[in-house]
Amino acid sequence: MAYIKATAILPEKLLSEIQKYVQGETLYIPKSEKVTKKWGSRSGARKLIDDRNKAIKEAFKDGQPIEQLAKEYFLSMETIKKIVYTR
Prior knowledge:
By secondary structure, the protein is an all-alpha fold. It has helices at residues 6-9, 12-19, 45-61, 66-73, 77-85. The longest helix is centred in the middle third of the chain and has 17 residues, at 45-61.
């Protein structure tokens, strides 16, 4: 994370207001929730897991036993149960 001088980007009025609370310290300002992306959305991992879970649910509906799904997808039986029994 690169540091940016507050004087270079903040209006003088805002800077003087912030100085009432903190001076000469490092201050972290987090991203707003609107900008923050959910886990895996950037890399595509979330979509892969969602697609896998959908395939597991479909296979379970088609009669494939939990034990077989666990072996096929290299997951525990408890994880398969969580996937197939949640909406």
